[in-house]
Design the sequence.
């Protein structure tokens, strides 16, 4: 293979591929990427056998076709440090010869036949969704998914398409995030699929600067996403996702209106005294004001208050501050509405149209 390519285009593609390449694996070949010339330019492929990514680099001139399987981390490091943007790449056998200006680099590759084949998007039922909408749904849910390996069915984000809307839901049993958007094509047969968190995170990276429609496909055990420059394929998570609709509070009672920025700042302040053993802040809500406090034995205490819109009954609750802050980071609205009814009842936070967050309270003792 012999090509001339944009260094920046290759670095950007490899940066995305590095999100899929496993840091540790018993199969060393998976720490490589496969680079192959195709009619549209250059194809970069990475996989860990559960999540696979295929990327197009079109800022390239192919003089001679071929392919290279090489360490993703080493190639990324080399290209990132080259002094010029234009790169000449020549592959002879399993060795890559790179030059940029006066810089010369030789990098040994691996046997291409050992690299796994990765499925292409293919034909079949699909859904088209604006990339910016999908990016928002991913960002507003993936943080709430369980990370413990023992809760396998919760180690994913539920894609739920039905009744004219596209919905994403994630929970770890202590909190639940639900985000949805209307979709006129989601009126046929309903679709549910449990997506792996790593796949959702990688999809979010792919969609960072994508404003065109994205193609989604769900098969028996795979989820696929396609943009103009990328294809992502994920193995679905096995197991039964909880009946989340049964635990969603209805939003009864009087809501409290909170300034998002002020609330987040005071929660961070109260959490600054927390320790690994104590992760809790108290919210004391009364008419027109909210007190946010924490007290940690042998450390100290904090007390701050903010003006709020509330004329309901007094209530006091305790929450994990990190759960609150992770939600607030994903809210774009300046004001958050919350339903805080009892010290032992879940709190419901509304982060804008179609965005609900439920969090279980902690003991006040």
Sequence:
């Amino acid at each position: 293979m012999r090509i001339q390519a944009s260094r920046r285009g290759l670095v950007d593609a490899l940066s995305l591929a590095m999100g899929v390449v496993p840091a540790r694996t018993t199969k060393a070949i998976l720490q490589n990427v496969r680079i192959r010339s195709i009619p549209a330019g250059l194809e970069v492929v990475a996989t860990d056998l559960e999540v696979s990514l295929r990327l197009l680099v079109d800022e390239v001139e192919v003089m001679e076709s071929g392919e290279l399987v090489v360490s993703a981390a080493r190639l990324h490091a080399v290209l990132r440090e080259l002094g010029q943007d234009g790169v000449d790449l020549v592959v002879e056998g399993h060795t890559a010869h790179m030059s940029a200006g006066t810089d010369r680099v030789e990098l040994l590759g691996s046997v291409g036949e050992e690299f796994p084949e990765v499925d292409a998007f293919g034909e079949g039922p699909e859904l088209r969704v604006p990339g910016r909408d999908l990016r928002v749904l991913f960002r507003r849910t993936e943080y709430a998914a369980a990370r413990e390996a023992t809760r396998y069915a919760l180690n994913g984000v539920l894609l739920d398409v039905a009744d004219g809307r596209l919905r994403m839901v994630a929970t770890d049993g202590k909190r639940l995030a639900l985000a949805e958007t209307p979709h006129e094509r989601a009126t046929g047969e309903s679709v549910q699929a449990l997506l792996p968190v790593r796949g959702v995170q990688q999809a979010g990276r792919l969609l960072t600067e994508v404003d065109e429609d994205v193609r989604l496909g769900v098969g028996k055990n795979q989820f696929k996403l396609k943009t103009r420059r990328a294809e992502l394929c994920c193995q679905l998570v096995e197991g039964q996702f909880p009946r989340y609709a049964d635990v969603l509070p209805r939003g009864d009672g009087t809501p409290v209106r909170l300034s998002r920025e002020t609330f987040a700042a005071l929660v961070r302040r109260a959490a600054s005294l927390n320790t690994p053993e104590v992760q809790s802040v108290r919210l004391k809500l009364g008419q027109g004001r909210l007190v946010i406090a924490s007290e940690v034995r042998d450390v100290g205490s904090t007390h701050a208050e903010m003006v709020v819109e509330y004329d309901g009954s007094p209530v006091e609750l305790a929450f994990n501050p990190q759960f609150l802050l992770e939600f607030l980071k994903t809210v774009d609205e300046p004001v958050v509405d919350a339903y805080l009814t009892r010290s032992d009842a879940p709190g419901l936070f509304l982060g804008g149209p179609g965005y609900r967050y439920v969090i279980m309270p902690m003991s006040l003792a």
